[in-house]
Write a structure and sequence with these properties.
The structure holds 2 protein chains of 2 kinds. Chain A is mainly α. Chain A is 71% helix and 0% strand. Chain A has 2 domains: 55 residues, no CATH class; 208 residues, Orthogonal Bundle (MetI-like fold). Chain A is globular. The relative contact order of chain A is 0.14. Chain B is mostly helical. Classes of the chains: A mainly alpha, B mainly alpha. Chains A and B meet through helix 1, helix 4, helix 5, helix 6 and helix 8 of A and helix 1, helix 3, helix 4, helix 5 and helix 6 of B.
Chain lengths: 292, 297
């Protein structure tokens, strides 16, 4: 999407162009506004928010809200700050992303290069699972996690995220490998290369772009998940649930500055990933989820 | 073992290996998706309260569900929310995409600004908008301090208007992504078609209305499917922004299901509401996925 020629542009008059720029800039401000509000108010003393203007720059700059959000703020019943929950999220996200991406790659490889009778049905059933409202699986999942002894634990959340993530990763890799010439795979087979060898030597080396997409997609979705974390997190709640507990806590003074600092902390990993690799993210979303 | 037998075993293993590797994923999908759906469907016909139990009571839960005013509020809200969310996101997304496609300077800078909200969690979005729309410290107060004393914006505290604040925050989060989908569609259109139409004397407006927008049909369809799917699943944003309030005025099916199942101990009714949600999404997704897969075969 980045290096596209722009001949599609139709010719427009001066007034129209000015209008277009105006609209585009106004929308840019609209999208930036909440980020600005969060940023500015996270470095203000509380009195400056409750007694002052939310849009104004801080008169006294302070990092206290950040420190508080990270290590001392009251989350639920304990004053631990968001730090332990941040770690929970990392412990949950890294294995979930790794496992679901590897499994998705193998599935995509099989569904395109080792086709069998009924493979479209298998894929269709896996694909539909991406789009179910998760409310339909909450109750049985709670029962099963309880039976497995995984309720309220990080491994339990990893299981949940892998199970409901492989649909998407399979979709991405399947669409990507579908464009890869099957003749090369057949030739390698005739030369005596086996299933895993072909995958390892031929498919995997060209999988960089789609692996990036799958990793970013899974990372963003799992990091940002709230429903599963709130339902099955127990004592190992992820960052999003902790942030919500922080903001919704009804006891004491509402420390808006701490809430904003916490919100930015919760957003930082995905924002970082997006800034670093955002263009692949978009391209992947276009290639994967949109084209089915 | 003789050489041919080993070779035979190896080929047979090679034949089976792909299916063996795929089998765990397929099994997991069958159990955790379709098995669980079946579980919830069956549960919705039982009188389960706090824990699942298997006393069948027929359609009683569904009858009760549709008699609940709480559920009617949730349905009304999802109808308002989904309609506005889909229409506004599509309109803004299409407009921004068409505008960005006019050889705009700084496009490379604008695009990430439009898109970054997609990277955020709905909880973060909800927190930011919750305080920004709060009349006590947010927008209303800012306007008063800037001298516009009569300015009033109390939607988030207003039973009738709070649902629209959820639309605002959700549109903020997703419209940039819809823009990216349309922009990709626009960039994929063959320029020759446009040039030919221009030579024939079509005005810009005609060009877009008669040629470009019809050509964007696939992008419209994808946007619709993705947005309706996001709308019906919307849970986090409501929790973070309004908590379903004030009162129950922003309750949605997703929050309804959660509270009936896990806090009100009405698991049977919770399950039946989940089944209704699934059926709604399936009615949109199944024809779409079927068409997509058939086309690809």
């Amino acid at each position: 999407m980045s290096a596209v020629t722009q001949d599609t542009a139709v010719s427009t008059g001066r007034v129209t162009r000015a209008f277009i720029y105006l609209v585009l800039i106004l929308f840019a401000l609209f999208y930036l506004l909440p980020l600005y509000v969060m940023g500015v108010n996270s470095v203000k003393p509380l009195a400056e928010i409750t007694g002052g203007n939310m849009m104004a720059l801080p008169q006294t700059w302070t990092l206290e809200p950040w420190r508080s959000a990270w290590s001392t703020a009251q989350i639920g019943v304990e004053a631990t700050g968001l730090r332990p929950y941040f770690l929970n999220s990392i412990l949950m996200v890294v294995p979930s992303v790794a496992i679901s991406t590897i499994v998705g790659a193998l599935n995509g490889y099989i569904l395109t290069k080792w086709r069998f009778r009924g493979d479209t049905w298998v894929f269709g059933l896996m694909l539909f699972s991406c789009f179910i409202p998760f409310q339909i699986v909450l109750i049985p999942m709670a029962v099963v996690l309880g039976k497995l002894g995984l309720a309220g634990s990080v491994p339990g959340l990893i299981l949940v995220h892998v199970v409901y993530g492989i649909g998407f990763t399979t979709l991405y890799f399947r669409n990507y490998y579908a464009a890869f010439p099957t003749e090369l795979v057949r030739a390698a087979q005739i030369d005596g290369a086996g299933f895993f060898r072909i995958f390892w030597r031929i498919l995997l080396p060209v999988s960089g772009p789609i692996a990036v997409v799958s990793i970013i997609w899974q990372f963003t979705n799992i990091w940002n998940d709230f429903l599963f974390g709130a339902s099955f997190g127990g004592t190992s709640q992820p960052m999003t649930v902790a942030l919500n507990n922080l903001v919704q806590s009804s006891t004491g003074v509402k420390e808006y500055n701490v809430h904003f600092a916490g919100a930015i902390l919760a957003a930082l990993p995905t924002l970082f990933v997006y800034v670093v690799a955002g263009r692949y993210f978009v391209r992947g979303l276009m290639a994967g989820s949109v084209k089915g | 073992m003789s050489a041919p037998a080993t070779a035979d075993f190896r080929t047979r293993l090679q034949d089976w290996l792909p299916k063996l590797v795929l089998a765990p994923s397929f099994a997991v999908t069958l159990i955790f998706v379709y098995g669980f759906i079946l579980f919830t469907v069956i549960l919705s016909f039982t009188g389960s309260k706090m824990l699942p139990k298997w006393d069948f009571i027929g359609f009683e839960n569904y009858v009760k569900l549709f008699a609940l005013q709480h559920w009617h509020i949730a349905l009304r809200n999802i109808a308002i929310f989904a309609t506005l969310y889909i229409v506004i996101c599509t309109a803004i997304g299409l407009m921004l995409a068409i505008f960005l496609d006019q050889k705009i300077r700084g496009e490379g800078m604008l695009r990430p600004i439009y898109l970054y909200p997609m990277a955020l969690s709905f909880i973060v979005t909800g927190t930011a908008w919750k305080w920004f729309l709060d009349p006590g410290i947010g927008l209303e107060r800012v306007m008063h301090l800037w001298g516009w004393e009569s300015f009033s914006f109390t939607w988030i505290k207003d039973n009738d208007m709070a649902i629209y604040t959820i639309v605002i925050a959700a549109v903020w989060q997703t419209s940039g992504f819809v823009m990216a989908m349309f922009l990709a569609g626009l960039r994929g259109i063959d320029n020759e078609v446009l040039k030919a139409a221009q030579i024939d004397g079509a005005s810009n407006l005609q060009l877009y209305r008669r040629i470009v927008i019809p050509l964007l049909r696939p992008a419209f369809l994808s946007a619709f499917v993705i947005l309706s799917h996001l709308a019906i699943k919307s849970y986090d944003l409501v929790v973070a922004l309004t908590g379903g309030g004030p009162g129950r005025s922003t309750e949605m099916p997703a929050t309804f299901m959660y509270s009936y199942t896990f806090t009100r101990n009405q698991m049977g009714i919770g399950a039946s509401s989940a089944v209704i949600m699934l059926m709604t999404i399936a009615a949109i997704m199944v024809p779409y996925l079927y068409a997509e897969l058939k086309e690809k075969k």
